[in-house]
Design goal:
Helix content: over 70%
Distance between the termini: 49 Å
Structural class: mainly alpha
Order of helices and strands: HHHHHHHHHHHHHHHHHHHHHHH
InterPro entries: Cro/C1-type_HTH, Lambda_DNA-bd_dom_sf, TPR-like_helical_dom_sf, TPR_rpt
Radius of gyration: 26 Å
Number of strands: 0
Strand content: under 5%
Organism: Geobacillus icigianus
Largest sheet: none
Protein name: Transcriptional activator NprA
Pfam family, one: HTH_3
Shape: elongated
Length: about 425
């Protein structure tokens, strides 16, 4: 990092103005030139500025020890090794703090955004991002790469997928000017693929997923390879290539088993269940969903709820209403037993509420829930498939009640939402 950038970073992190940093040492205009790397001061001036800003000497040349520690911590986070990331956190924070190097603390605060997202602490990550944003102008290109990458991941977790893609693309532009290990390029390519997938841009998703897969296989990264095969399966499923999607899931299954990753195996089983459901193979679909729940037994609640919902819908589609209701009740109980479950997982509260009422005989509460809560909620979130399905259920309800004008309205809405989902 250049001298001017280090001085500016240290000053900003201490909350000092240029006037306060320069007072009694040099003029403000000369400090401004130094910070912009337009002037090189003498050793005596550097020493005085370093003392005032709390910068330790002897930090040039090869990568310092704190940097190696930060990168090891970051690799643990990229590998989603929560235990290792937690274990290293305090030591890395202390090492960066005691280094007296503003660059070290910037890297720590950047990586802390990624760490909090790994822990699913979205509010903490948002607060960490706000503090880092103030220092953006003083960041060099390697720092800006991580800045845009982590802001992209934050936006993705906030379900702002257009913003996430935009930030990832900024990181990608900087990646081309820097030397990074293959696993880093693979990680960014995978994140780009995820963003494209959320935006239903299938061909871009396939391109970036295949790049991530190629780089991951070269590094024998089994877990990332499995994740890539799952994402390819989703892409092929959306293209109607069900058999090819199943082949991708089977490859993902082998890699996940070799990596001994139970959650990932559970995700693969869930996707196999979805594909078997599309092939109208009810028993196989149910079996895969049930296996998924076994592997996800210790997983976060959201990872289990998505499979409970899929299993519920498969039972309902097969007209096994007794098992559908039982599954809906089990999902509902999970929400009830979890602190703030109904509010933090509001979408699943709506899903299970819809099916509990649907299976219990509908009625005015069913109409109200779909018309005023479920359909507007999923429509606003651009989850058009769910919104279209529930619009169809409401249309059927009105048709049975001989309210044909209302039925026609919601049938049209269901068709319109499906067109939005596919972009046609």
């Amino acid at each position: 990092m250049k001298l001017g950038d280090r001085l500016k970073l240290a000053r900003l992190m201490k909350g000092m103005t240029q006037e306060e940093a320069a007072e009694g040492i040099i003029s403000v205009s000369y400090l401004s030139k130094i910070e912009n790397n337009q002037a090189m001061p003498g050793e005596d001036v550097i020493e005085l500025l370093f003392r005032r800003l709390g910068i330790h000497r002897g930090q040039s040349g090869t990568a310092p020890g704190w940097f190696e520690s930060v990168m090891a911590w970051y690799k643990a986070m990229t590998d989603k090794n929560v235990a290792a990331a937690r274990e290293q956190y305090a030591a890395v924070r202390q090492q960066c703090s005691e280094s007296g190097d503003a660059e070290a603390m910037i890297y720590f605060h950047l990586m802390r955004i990624r760490y909090l997202l790994l822990l699913r602490d979205l509010k903490g990550a948002e607060a960490a991002a706000r503090s880092v944003r103030e220092w953006y102008e003083a960041l060099d290109e390697p720092m800006r790469y991580y800045y845009w990458k982590f802001f992209g991941l934050l936006s993705y977790c906030q379900e702002k997928y257009d913003d996430a893609l935009h930030f990832y693309q900024k990181a990608e532009a900087l990646l081309g000017t820097q030397r990074k290990p293959n696993w880093e390029e693979a990680d960014l390519s995978y994140l780009l693929a995820l963003a494209y997938s959320r935006l239903w841009k299938v061909f871009q998703c396939i391109r970036y997923t295949e790049r991530a897969l190629s780089l991951s296989q070269a590094e024998y990264e089994l877990r990332r390879g499995a994740e890539c095969h799952v994402l390819l399966a989703i892409c092929y499923r959306r293209c109607g290539e069900i058999d090819q999607a199943i082949d991708c899931c089977l490859l993902a299954q082998k890699a996940a088993q070799l990596a001994n990753d139970r959650l990932l195996i559970g995700i693969v089983e869930h996707n196999l269940g979805h594909l078997k459901a599309m092939k109208k193979q009810y028993r196989e679909a149910v079996q895969h969903y049930e296996h998924s729940l076994v592997y996800k037994s210790d997983a976060p609640l959201a990872d289990r709820l998505i499979t409970f919902l899929a299993l519920l819908r498969e039972h309902y589609a097969a007209q096994n209403y007794r098992k559908a209701l039982s599954t809906a009740e089990e999902g509902w109980q999970l929400l009830e037993q979890t602190e703030n479950g109904m509010t933090e997982h509001y979408e699943y509260y709506l899903h299970f509420s819809v099916y509990r009422l649907l299976l219990a005989g509908e009625g005015e509460e069913f109409e109200r829930l779909l018309k005023h809560e479920a359909i507007p909620y999923f429509q606003k979130r651009k989850e058009y498939e769910d919104a279209a399905q529930y619009a169809g259920y409401l249309a059927d309800y009105y048709a049975r009640a001989r309210q044909y004008k209302q039925a026609a309205h919601y049938y049209r809405l269901s068709c319109e939402l499906l067109r939005r989902r596919t972009g046609t």
